Amino acid sequence: NPCATPINAFPWTENFDAMVTLGTDIVPNCWLTQPTAIWASMNAAAISYNDPCSGANYVTCYWSPYTSTDKYLITPAFTLTAGTTYNFGFKWVGDGYSGWNAEVRYNTTQTGTGSTLLGSAFLTSGTTTGTSCVANTQGFTPGVTGTYYFMVHVTNNVTPYYLSFDDFSVT
Q1: Average per-residue pLDDT in the chain?
Q2: How far is CA 23 from CA 37, 71, 75, 135, in A?
Q3: Which secondary-structure segment (H or E) carries 149?
Q4: Which of the four, 45, 77, 98, 163, has the lowest number of CB atoms within 10 Å?
């Protein structure tokens, strides 16, 4: 089982370009999307609202359902050492619309339920997103050595269409 052992070699990166099969709820091994039918791996030809930040593939969050739906894209597990600062990074690209809320969270289990906010939101609903990639990095220093998962948490209203993510890293 490729997910039985948390990642403990850094730097770690994922740009989704090794993926051969793309589509709804199709993400690399050990990643998780919550709930189903909201996240999809895509390439530049899949939609006209935005493109990958590098290479051919990326992951996109659909606008529907909207309002109260919490949408999570969750990384594989990482073994992190107490007192060491790690930087969780990625690039995001919008669709030319406002209505997105997005933030970075972490948890000790692979779920958005009970996760903890890291920093503050990197995107709020009043912001009109551009179609150029924006880098986002959030530092994290665990208080206890153990297994951790990072995640992007998204909510939105009815206005936008696609919020996309690429070039994840933990350094």
Answers
A1: 95
A2: 10, 17, 18, 24
A3: strand 146-156
A4: 45
Q: Could you give the angle at the alpha carbon of 59 between the alpha carbons of 80 and 73, nearest 5°?
A: 45
Tell me: the pLDDT tens digits for 135-148? Answer: 999 999 999 999 99
User: Which pTM was predicted?
Assistant: 0.95
Q: Which two tokens stand for residue 86?
A: 């790690």
Residues found in the chain: 171
Contacts of 85 (CB under 8 A, 6+ apart): 139, 140, 141
Looking at residue 62, its amino acid is Y
Residue 50: CA atoms inside 13 Å, Cβ hemisphere, count?
30
Q: Using H for helix, E for strand and C for coil, what is the string for 8-69?
A: CCCCEEECCCCCCCCCECCCCCCCEEECCCCEEEEECCCCCCCCCCCCCEEEEEECCCCCCC
